[in-house]
Amino acid sequence: MTEKKILAVFGATGQQGGSVINQLVSEPAASLPNISQFHLRALTSRSLPISSASPIQLEQWYRLIGSSPDTDTDNNTTNNTTNTIQVTPQVDFHTPSTLLPALKDVHTAFIMTTPSFTPVTSDDPNSSKEFLAVQNILSAALAQKVDTVLFSTLPNITELSSGKYTHVTPFDDKARAEAYIRSLHPQIKSAFLSLGFFMSNWLTQGFLAPRYDEDTDSWVMRLHVAGGTGIPLVDAGRDTGKFVAAILERGVDGTGEAVLAAEGVYALDGIAEVFSRHTGQRVRYEQVTVEEFRETGLKGFPESLKDVLVEGYSALEEFGHAGKETGALVEEGKRLVRECGLGELVSLEEFLKKEGYVLGKGPRSKQWGS
After folding, report:
1. pLDDT on residue 297
2. pLDDT digits (tens, 9 = 90+) for 219-242
């Protein structure tokens, strides 16, 4: 019997990494020809009471992280074809001595890094904390002769806006990291997953959530951009793994393909309508001035983070998430998932139902805590 290749998953206890693990150990993904060749290694920064790279039962893994696979999906997550998973705890992006053993004997690595919202003080944009983390990971990957990396990226807003919006550093940092990874070809093969806005943001980020307005007896979402502004949305905690599985099943040829991962592009007005249908109450979207959004909607936020959010949504309105081709790219990603037989993606309305969303309960998410 051929020995299975190791697929390492960074951020295994978060939304993206957790979704990758849940999908790849479950039907239908686990029985696909290419996916079935992998054995998973979960990498987490958490301290867990196990030895490095220890193989443990899946049930023990879910007990350790205090979570369980989502059983209310198209996938049969209760009938896992893979019974064990390797686990490496206390992996630190900025501590090379933890990265080298984490990537030992790994064939493919799914890499997601935590965005940094701190402004870069150096004249060198590549000195950002996230970019340095990616350099550390790739240095370890090259040293351990990892064959392929799949990186969770985002568009470069400075380039997309031709230099008009330069403060959306969480996006630009990931895009620069993507360019760096591409530069390492052919030493290491790569593919890229660019996720849309997380549906869970509307449950965990108070400035996006509907707020009750006594004057109109309605719930109101307020941003400084037009209601027709389109936002690609994805249930990252449930569907990231479907896109990763589809990319791996199709195979990574090393050309650096990029897949935009989203269930659909929703106008802000349309998002409010979905909330109305789900709650049975009047929810509407209202465009406000930039000043009102900064001072009221983002009250208490650091000025640097206000810059990120104001410019980020302004760029979205003017240029689209990934330019004029955003809608077509979303459909292309969805088609890839369908062709691999990985089931339907979660719509915003389905997401709110799964989360048991109730108006006025404050920022919360059943998946990821308050």
Report:
1. 96
2. 999 999 999 999 999 999 999 999
pLDDT tens-digit profile of 45-99?
998 888 776 789 988 988 888 877 764 444 444 444 457 899 999 999 999 999 9
Residues comprising the chain, all counted: 370
pLDDT digits (tens, 9 = 90+) for 292-301: 999 999 999 9
Higher pLDDT, 54 or 141: 141
CB 136 within 8 A of CB 185: no
Neighbouring residues of 299: CB distance < 8 A, sequence distance ≥ 6: none
In this model, does residue 129 exceed pLDDT 80? yes
DSSP 26: S
Does residue 117 carry a pLDDT above 70? yes
SS3 content of the chain, % helix, strand, coil (to 5): 40, 20, 40
What CA–CA distance (Å, rounded) separates 364 from 370? 4
Nearest to 146 by CA among 43, 55, 46: 43
Nearest to residue 185, comparing CAs of 249, 138, 132? 138
DSSP sequence for 222-252: EESS-TT-EEEEE-HHHHHHHHHHHHHHH--
- Residue listed under structure tokens 């806005």: 197
Strand ranges (DSSP E) for 10-125?
A: 38-43, 54-57, 84-88, 106-111
Mean pLDDT of 111-129: 76
Provide DSSP, 96-132: HHHHHHHTTTEEEEEE------SPP-SS-GGGSHHHH
DSSP secondary-structure letter at 345? P
pLDDT by residue (tens digit) across 148-157? 999 999 999 9
CB 89 within 8 A of CB 48: yes
Helix axes 348-355, 268-279, angle to 10 degrees: 40
Q: Among 61, 247, 227, 68, which residue's Cα sits nearest to residue 153?
A: 247
Residue 207, CA atoms < 13 Å, CB-side half-sphere? 18
